[in-house]
Amino acid sequence: MRIVCVSDVHTDHKHNAQWLDDLVRTPRPEDVLLLAGDVSDCFDTLRTTLQKLRACYRAVFFCPGNHDVWVRQKEPNFATSLDKLHAVLRLCDELGVHTRLTCIDGVWIAPLLSWYHYCWDSEPDIPNPKIPRADQSSSDIRLCRWPAHLPAGSLALAEHLDSLNSAIDRDSLQGPLITFSHFLPYQELLPEKRMLFFPNLAKLVGSRPLARRIEALRPDAHVFGHTHIGWDGVVRGVRFLQSPLGYPHERKAGIVHTQEPLCLYDTEKGFPAEHYPFHWSDHYRTTARNPHILDLAPWVAPRYA
Asked: Is the pTM higher than 0.85?
């Protein structure tokens, strides 16, 4: 058995839908797929995508991302994004897609619900007034609807999403444990702000409650998504992997390179001995992060001149 992973497939885009059809043309009855969020903001497209993947793979695990809980006017059945989240989880149950801790061939797999909050970002901001604020730039602000007591970007919202996860006793689990989420637990999994085309991205990607949960579970590996930045590296003793499909224009520009889900674990070979070659995780294997350097990188500076 192989466990493979991919995130951010965005099958509401025509070229990504074609990628999906090409992928599922070959049955993969020995493979287990971890799908780390952001399939589609359209519920019907999400359903179709999960159906195709479930028919192709031995098993599919899914953790919803931010796009998956957008609430548009064309979908009047969902009063809030929480309503849509619970509908997505019910859909997964209906289709036989795993959203909770499950053991397959001695390997434990745990999808972890999470949401970002602005105060997760603990590093200095770039002092440039031309850089938009996070709450001015995220489509989530317009397209997610949260109850009044759980405002967008709040720690309360992140805590609530985390509370929806079932309790797991790590010491009772025999064998490898792989966890995955859509969002990031640690800022070390994101390049410094000066390197990013949108420096305030750091306020829209991470969760401290998720970090606490991962620290309690002590997984052998954790898969994440959301940033569309490929990654394979060890942080705080855990191997982290992101394998995003991303948007068609990102693949065309060479920003992302995923062609098919990457193998994270093989029951005969274990975890891959070598790290997958991703630019930023390769960079940080030899270069220490220094978030206190606030001069924008040469490829970023012209945007905010």
From this structure: yes
